[in-house]
Amino acid sequence: MTTTNDNAGTDRKIVTFSLAQQTFGIDMRALIEIREWDEPTPLPNVPGFIKGVTNLRGNVVPVVGLAERLGWEPSAIHARSCILVVHIAGKQAGFLVDEVNDIVAIGEAEIQPAPEVETIEPSVIAGLVRIATRQKDGTRDEKGTMVLLLDLDALSLTKHLDIAA
Amino acid sequence: MSDEFDDIQAIFFEECAEGLTTAEQGLSAMQAGDVSAEVIAGVFRAVHSIKGGAGAFGHADLTAFAHKFENVLDEVRGGKIPPSPGVVKVMLSAFDILTDHVESAKGLAPRPVDQAALAALEQVLANKGADDGGPVAAPAAAAEVPAGEADAFGFVPMAVSLDDFDAPAELPAADAAWIVTFKPSRAALANAGEPLLIIRELESLGGEVVAVDTSTVPPLRDLDPEDAYLTWTLRVPGEVAESDISDCFDFVAPDSIVEVRRDEAAAAPLAEAAPAADEFGFVPVSAGIEDFAAEMQRVVETIAAASPAIGSVETPAIAPKAGSEAQQTIRVDLGKLDLLLNLVGELVIRNSILADRLSPADRQRVELPELARLTRQIQDNVMSLRAQPIKQAFSRVPRMLRDLSVETGKQILLETVGETTEVDKGVIEKIGDPLTHMIRNAADHGLESAEERIAAGKDPAGTIKLSAEQRGARIFVRVQDDGRGINREKVRAKAVERGIISGDAQLSNEEIDQLICAPGFSTADTISNISGRGVGMDVVRSNVEALGGRVEIHSVPGEGTTFTMILPLTLAILDGMIVRLAGQRFVLPLAHVLETVQPEPGQVKRTSPDSEVIDMRGEYVPVKRATEIFGLNDDRAIEDSLVVIVENEGSGKVGLVVDTIDDRREVVIKSLDQNLHPIRGLGGATILGDGSIALILDIEALVASTNRFTPKGLAA
């Protein structure tokens, strides 16, 4: 299940997933669970990226269209669509992603800061890291893939709404 | 070790907070005239355990103050000092200082100035001393001496006073010294029960270590560093109260050996040897004071060792707490209660799924009704665990008013009503700040000075009435003063000056009153340290709104002002109607529903392109489409819909258009702000029998939004 990078210093694990043809990663420690997509109950008077709320073992948890939230085209729902349920700033939230790829250990030193590019919220991307990826036949792709590490705190729903308000 | 210590200390401070609450409630009851033994003992216990803990954690100032306070309480408890209003007043101010000492021990405040309070306590003790003629220093101990030993104690001071020695320092008091034997158990060490702390505390009482028994220490190779081998023997002056000594061992693991015994052997032989008093008189002459003392002590110890049973007291470190407190409580992490509540919610849902899937005959066969009844009971009980009497939030008000009374020089009486109203713990925690601001505001701005009040023909003492009541799914918390009322002209002028409203704005009285809650508003001519920075009422409003509630202000010039916080009873079970709006299920709180009608053609008429009314037997009721408020697509004809007539306090009747009504059921409210934030128009969400989520409509907010442009809108 787990692939390790060749470099030493496996400081933390990230979950990688695809979204709008990009590979993103979030810190494994923030992850509560991965669930299949289930149509959430829509909420009135909320920004469009909040898809609604869902029942997570008795908790009412908001579901966020992560693609819209990050400014990409909304994800089309398909068989592998799933929801990453995470802890953000003491609250729980579910992120709709296109497909969960892998759990990868990376070294803290391998993370490069996100270049200053023109985005609405540059702080949403905490850094970039290159990981080796598995091919369908099980061999390693040595060229690797660039993973955009998300800063979950910057994605906090209430934080965003405070700014918007 | 230090982390563990910090954790234990954190528990101590939690206990302090509880103790202080108990003490204050008791003292307030005493002030109100209830001086029953139970109340006094309650206060004593509270102060006593604060002192015990403080000693164990080395908070010397706190310990010293609590000790003095406890002495007075002990005397009051023992009936030696009558709990007169004067004494209760001294104790109330001592309580305030004690609270400050606790804050100081936490490192949150500087050490309070306690000399005045100490002197007052001292005074109370001294006055009592005059009653029985006994020396002030020894009353606590003397009070505990059994009657049978009176002879011996009567004798000793005579013997000493007959002597011409300058300072019989070793045996100064009437009471025989205490011999304390302490052997901590292995468990005590494992639980971070540092013996040194206890010994230091005993030393602070004047005790000294006379022997350490090291005989059980094994050879080094057999020594278990985590085991306890040592036994200490300490000598504590006789005038120290026994309870003070046992206090030092409050936190010692129960299997440790602790013995406190009165060293009456010191006195007994003297009494028996009375005819031979001359002999004793000679000893010091020949051997000198030191030798005499040493000899005495040797005799004392020998006899004490020979008769260990005499007067020995097994210090009951745990037992008295368990036995004497009528109400036993345990501390539970709030998170665990929340989890339990969620699980019970799930259980209820599973139950209803089961009921849906079984035929009536099968339901009876598996005794489902019985299961449902039990489940319901469990749910009610779990709910009640989180509900706390609002007393907890009210309990800090008396102290605040005492301080405010001193700061403002106004006489303030407090009346409380409905203290037992039960509110969810989370709400209690969050209304503390708004309540503080409201009380301060009432004391500072609302009430007049005594002179002004007399001039206005009122009682010189102002009254602040604090009340709480539950109405339906809401809690009303009121702070009512009988002061001057809101000076609307002044408020208006100030608001114009601050640029909050324009000079030519037409405002109703209610709207002007509401300006008090506008950000940056303050009418105080000078900024006092009580209120007047223009943040208070603004904070009240935003805090209360964050809880999904609102603030109402009602003021009559010359008669006073009432601030009402209207708060939701979160986590309560809501009796609701499951309705559909544009196909989606919502819960409509039944408490607001008057009736439901299927509109006849022509019964609903437009009064403008944006507004409709329904003809209800001649009464025209405004109609609101919730689908529009929520931006849902709905092209259903009004005749195919239902109109639910709801009524809301202050806003009157409104008809809400819904598609259909599915069901009526009790639902568990889950707040949206736990993981998101409050959404206007929604009072929360609930989980239905099939596990899906239905949103709960907040009628007040929905109705208020229909009135947005009417004068009431601002007040709502």
Automatic annotation (TrEMBL), chain A:
Gene3D superfamilies: CheA-289, Domain 4, SH3 Domains. GO terms for biological process: chemotaxis; signal transduction. Residues 11-161 form the CheW-like domain. This is Purine-binding chemotaxis protein CheW. GO terms for cellular component: cytosol. It comes from the Bacteria. It holds the Pfam family CheW. SMART domains: CheW. The lineage of its organism: Bacteria, Pseudomonadati, Pseudomonadota, Alphaproteobacteria, Sphingomonadales.
UniProtKB/TrEMBL annotation, chain B:
Residues 1-105 form the HPt domain. Gene3D superfamilies: Histidine kinase CheA-like, homodimeric domain, Histidine kinase-like ATPase, C-terminal domain, HPT domain, SH3 Domains. It catalyses: ATP + protein L-histidine = ADP + protein N-phospho-L-histidine. The modification Phosphohistidine is found at residue 48. CDD domains: CheA_reg (cd00731), HATPase_CheA-like (cd16916), HPT (cd00088). Signal peptide: none annotated. Keywords: ATP-binding, Chemotaxis, Kinase, Nucleotide-binding, Phosphoprotein, Transferase, Two-component regulatory system. It holds the Pfam family HATPase_c. Residues 367-571 form the Histidine kinase domain. Residues 573-708 form the CheW-like domain. This is Chemotaxis protein CheA.
